[in-house]
Amino acid sequence: MKKVLVINDCKFEEIIFRDLLKKLGYDVRISNEYEAIKQLEEFLPNIVIANLIMREITGDRLIKRIKSIKKDTWCVLSSSNPLSLENYKEFSVDEVMQTPISEEKFESALKFKELFKFCPYCGKRLESIKRRVIYCPNCGEKL
């Protein structure tokens, strides 16, 4: 079962994320920005969803710290404001998500990571991919 760590300082959003993720079959743990690193090390999630604006730190900076500890964790930055992934590449953000979000879009954002770990043509890892791509960077085949 895939594990998801939700880092958010808004209890309402935490509940929504938790319920939606459990419905989709994920093992979920909720944390705030103060306990996030401890939870990362104990829970060992495959995916982290961090809110952009929190009391003491922004989600992008927290994701950068998470990636320095566990670089293979898929990190999603969430916000109620529109976000562009291009603005957060320097923080190693893998995906951005505007909330509220439909169940279909939410599931799609998380499933993309699972679908394309390896190129179906050449079999090479696609770990360096940070966004939805059309062509494999290794062999050039259309995905």
Automatic annotation (TrEMBL):
<dbReference type="InterPro" id="IPR011006">
    <property type="entry name" value="CheY-like_superfamily"/>
</dbReference>
<comment type="function">
    <text>May play the central regulatory role in sporulation. It may be an element of the effector pathway responsible for the activation of sporulation genes in response to nutritional stress. Spo0A may act in concert with spo0H (a sigma factor) to control the expression of some genes that are critical to the sporulation process.</text>
</comment>
<protein>
    <recommendedName>
        <fullName>Stage 0 sporulation protein A homolog</fullName>
    </recommendedName>
</protein>
<dbReference type="InterPro" id="IPR001789">
    <property type="entry name" value="Sig_transdc_resp-reg_receiver"/>
</dbReference>
<dbReference type="GO" id="GO:0000160">
    <property type="term" value="P:phosphorelay signal transduction system"/>
</dbReference>
<feature type="domain" description="Response regulatory">
    <location>
        <begin position="3"/>
        <end position="114"/>
    </location>
</feature>
